[in-house]
Amino acid sequence: MADFPLTVDSATILVVDDSTENLDVLGELLLPAYRVRAANSGRRALRIAASDPKPDLILLDVVMPEMDGYTVLARLRQDPRTRDIPVIFVTAMDATEDEERGLDLGAVDYITKPLRPSIVLARVHAQLELKRARDWLRNQNVFLEAEVARRMAENQLIQDISIHALARLAETRDAETGNHLRRTREYMRTLALKLRNHPRFASFLTDRNVQLLAKSAPLHDIGKVGIPDHILLKPGRLSPEEWEIMKTHTRLGSEAIEQAERDAERPVEFLTLAKEIACYHHERWNGGGYPEGLVGDAIPISARLMALADVFDALISRRAYKPPMSHGQARDIIAAERGRHFDPDMVDAFLAHFDEFRAIAERYGDHDEA
Questions:
Q1: CATH 3.40.50.2300 residue ranges in the chain?
Q2: 167-224, pLDDT tens digit by residue?
Q3: What is d(CA 111, CA 58) in angstroms, rounded to the nearest whole number?
Q4: 97 backbone dihedrals φ, ψ, rounded to 5°
Q5: Among 21, 140, 183, 370, fewest CB within 10 Å belongs to which?
């Protein structure tokens, strides 16, 4: 563990009193053990307290002209630079209500005049020890928070790399997909952001869920690892029997992710969305999709987003069985499928911000693939 950041005998104490005589008395008492700064008014005290080196403790007279000690303390507590400096009131007032008022305002102690040197030194030492302990704990907390943040970021990076590597493994089975993972991830993120204030989607599309959707998107076709090469890589159209086998990639993907959920020691948020996306991203708004023929809002929002992103990218991409379409042609097909293949509100958002989707397609075009 780190050493305490402050040693008591190196502390700086600010003494505030409008009486030069009182300043001299306190200065002589404290100087052998501490560094002492002095202020003969509240305004000067505030300037010194906010300048470097900031005092570790303030001895503050209550009764002063222009600005009394209560006002000075209130100002100290309002300023982020000085709010944590402990303050001991030093005053000739000894009424209980005066002491209570000072403590209520945030003073840590109360010393009455005439001053007794042993009492002053003991209370100063006690408050400096407390400040030293508080500072040490604060520094430890800052260090621990930074270390936790570092480790969480490291774990997050490892998780993201693992997800992408797993998705890439599936993509190696289908070499023609290029930057498909990057594009569909960014389409998903963009579409979700455009819809997050829509009344139908606002409760689901929180900042956290948008982040998780983008993380989950690359796993949408992970089930293709279970499809035989002669079907997955076939250059022509699939036969009805082959097509039925191809469609099983949705179930294979969701079952693999479900098994990963069971193997995990605790729930992993993004796996829930990844499982939905893998299973249902080929469902259609009108019920004509697979694997379950879900209709409308019965299809998870995550899968509806993925459906539009996946189809748009498939249309503009080259495949062994087709050339790429232009962005405009793909846009028109998506528009024509509004309310049939795709959620109508999602299509509206896509069309309203089409330039952003086209920019993503161009930024991550297959010609950029390393």
A1: 8-144
A2: 666 666 655 555 888 899 999 999 999 999 999 999 999 999 999 999 888 889 889 8
A3: 12
A4: -65, -30
A5: 370
- Please, where in the chain does CATH 1.10.3210.10 lie? 172-368
State phi, psi for 179 to the nearest 5 degrees. -85, 25
Dihedral sign from CA coordinates of 285, 288, 291, 295:
positive
CATH 3.40.190.10 holds for 172-368:
no
pTM: 0.60
CATH of 8-144, one of 3.40.50.2300, 3.20.20.140, 3.40.1580.10, 1.10.10.60: 3.40.50.2300
**Cα 115 to Cα 112: distance, rounded to the nearest angstrom:** 7
d(CA 307, CA 282): 6
Q: Distance between CA 145 and CA 147 in Å, rounded?
A: 5
